[in-house]
Amino acid sequence: MLLMFGTLLFCLAIGVPVFACLGIAAGLAMLQFGLDLLSAPQTIFESLDSFTLMAVPFYILAGNLMQTGGISRRLIHLANSIVGWLRGGLGASSILTCMFFATMSGSSSATTAAIGSSMIPAMEKKGYPKNFAAACVAVGGELGAIIPPSLTMIVYGLVANVSIGSMFIAGILPGLLVGCSLMLTIVLVASLRGFDNVTRVSPGVWLSNVYTALKGSILALLMPVIILGGIYSGIFTATEASVVAVLYGLLVGGLIYRELTLRDLIKTFIDSAVMTGVIMLIVGCAALFAYMLTLNQVPQTFGRFIVEIAGGPIGFLLLANLLLFVAGMFMEAFALIIILVPILAPIAVQFGIDPIHFGMIMIVNICIGMVTPPVGVNLFIACQIANLPIEKLLRPLGIFLAVLILDVLLISYIPWFSMAFL
User: Fold this and answer.
1) How far apart are CA 143 and CA 13, in angstroms?
2) According to its UniProt record, what is one Pfam family this protein matches (predicted)?
3) Helices and strands counted in the chain (H then E)
4) Average pLDDT in the 9-26 region?
């Protein structure tokens, strides 16, 4: 077991892709415990043979359609008209746009890529330091995994055997909390450092600008209403909603906005297929790794250890947050969920913590991992767009990490944020 974990951490440290690390670790575990080689592909196949997981490729495709179909551009215009008049408003509008886009894409990486390609150059022209602009988009992109519909919520619901619709409802207030705290941080930093000079507008002009932008983006804003409304009303399931999202994206981007060409459509399908393949590899290898841990009774042993040292729900949540923060620095979101949920969720229930509430704690922690090196997916995407080395983002990122850690503690110890609408 030490060999297995040691190899996993070493491979992650030297930059080997996450699914390859999990495959290497699972392979060593198979050799160590004598697992039949034929059972490995069977375990991987069974982990992917799920109706719920069918939502993953469709939500990825829907998010890519939003990006190429002109929807993301209209959402940026709407967000900028709402908060762009503030000092730091352009940075705040990037967070608000990420919140809008998150209600459609379900993916943090897709949100970062879609919004960053437009907002990072725009913020740089407005006087923002490039590294601060890239950090804004990176932390804003994580809202794609917190605000419903979310792929991480779907995988958590599948592994923890809880209602995905309930997870979606639970994510509303935490998403608003994280988004608003990030916008406030950007406005305060911009005011203190004196960048992003803006021209004040009268309330009448502001309302007129918002109304004009709202008319242009109303069809885009209807998409989350249709998706979430259909799920909550019972018209269709979360998986079926992903198909509805794709059809709506095709209709709006291709037939109404007329910005989705045949060439764009082919590229979108290819990109979505590649992204889906990567995610499914991660899920399959993580499931095999988790299966090996279960065979060796690691969840039970680790669970007893946590119960002994936690002392109660407050101590358990503190330990769980610390573990998830550290693990999120080295592991991809889906792998983290599949490996740690079977270990931590039963302990949370044992301490009287609702699995939906614990799911939101886990997901927000995982999202912080998306913007922490060395395996911060959103950081790499933002750095690629801004053409910056990752170390340039560390200083501005520290401010946002402090805010995100405070958000996690609020969500952890105030269950109302997750359970208010349930």
Assistant:
1) 26
2) DctM
3) 22, 0
4) 50
Burial tier of 290 (Cβ tally within 10 Å: 0-12, 13-18, 19+): buried
Q: What is the CA radius of gyration of the chain?
A: 21
Tokens for 152? 């991480």
Is pLDDT larger for residue 173 or for residue 39?
Answer: 173
Over the range 302-322, which residues count as b (16 or more CB within 10 Å of their CB) and which as e?
bbeebeeebeebeebbebbbe
Neighbours of 26 (CB within 10 A): 26
CA 11 to CA 331: how far, in whole Å?
11
- Residue indicated by tokens 């939003």: 66
The letter for the amino acid at 393 is L
Q: Is the four-CA dihedral 240, 242, 245, 249 of positive or negative sign?
A: negative
Residue 289, helix vs strand vs coil: helix
For residues 408 and 364, the answer to whether their CB atoms sit within 8 Å is yes
- How many Cβ atoms from other residues are within 10 Å of residue 233's Cβ? 8
Q: Is residue 379 within 8 Å of residue 371, measured between CB atoms?
A: yes
> What DSSP designation does 53 have?
G
Report the C-alpha gap between 27 and 292 in whole angstroms. Answer: 10
Cβ-contact 143, 371 below 8 angstroms = no
Contact 102, 147 (CB under 8 A): yes
Query: What is the token pair recorded at 88?
Result: 């730091």
Per-residue pLDDT tens digits for 111-129: 888 788 888 888 888 888 9
Whole-number Å distance between alpha carbons of 284 and 44: 5
246 closest CA partner among 53, 19, 66: 66
Sequence-distant (≥ 6) Cβ neighbours of residue 312 within 8 angstroms: 351
State pLDDT tens for residues 222-276: 887 888 788 878 888 878 888 888 888 888 888 888 888 888 889 889 988 888 8
Q: Is-contact 70 259, C-beta < 8 A?
A: yes
Q: Measure the CA–CA gap between 324 and 328, rounded to whole angstroms.
A: 6
Query: CA-based angle 97:158:370, to the nearest 5?
Result: 40
Query: Do 156 and 167 meet the contact criterion of CB atoms below 8 Å apart?
Result: yes
Calpha distance 35→299 (Å, rounded): 18
Longest dimension (CA), the chain: 73
